[in-house]
Amino acid sequence: MNSSGKPCSEVRRIVAAFGYSVAGLRWVISHPAFRTELIAACVMLPFAFVFGHTGVERAMLVSSLLLVLIVELLNTGIEAAIDRIGPEIHPLSKAAKDVGSSAVLLSLILAGAVWLLIMLG
C-alpha cells in the first residue's frame, strides 16, 4: 500500500493481468481443438504420476502435456488475430495459420515421444 492507503499500482497491474488471463482461458475453452486437448491432458495427468518413477520423469510427462496446451493457446490466438483482419483468403494469412498448426503438431509429437520413451525406459 502507498501512503494514501491504496494498493500499489503494481499490485493492480498484476490483478488485472490475472483477470485478462482468466478471460482468455474462458474464451479459448469454447474452441474444439483446445477443449479436446484439455480433456486429453486431464485424462492423462494422473497417469503421469503412475508411469513417472522419479520426480524428473513425472515433471517431463506433466510438462509435455502443458506444452501442448500452451502451444494450442498461442495457435488459437494467431488464428483469432488473422480472422480479425478479414475473411478474405491471403497467402500470408494461410501461412500464419499453417505455421501455428505445425507448432501444435510438433508439440504433440514431442509429448508422444516423451511419454513413449519414459514408458519404454
How would you describe what is shown here?
This protein has 121 residues and is mainly alpha-helical. It folds into two domains: 1-30; 32-120, Helix Hairpins. The chain has four helices and no strands. Helix 2 (32-51) packs antiparallel against helix 3 (55-85) and helix 3 (55-85) packs antiparallel against helix 4. It is flat and about 60 Å long. The model has no long low-confidence stretch (mean pLDDT 94).
The gist of it:
The chain is mostly helical.
| Residue-averaged pLDDT | 94
Euclidean distance between termini CA atoms: 53 Å
CATH fold-level topology of the largest domain: Helix Hairpins
CATH class descriptor of the largest domain? Mainly Alpha
Measured by DSSP, the beta-strand proportion falls in: under 5%
Characteristic key phrases:
2 domains, 83% helix, mainly alpha, Helix Hairpins, 121 residues
Please specify the SSE layout and strand pairing:
Layout: H1 9-28, H2 32-51, H3 55-85, H4 91-120
Helix pairs in contact: 2-3, 3-4
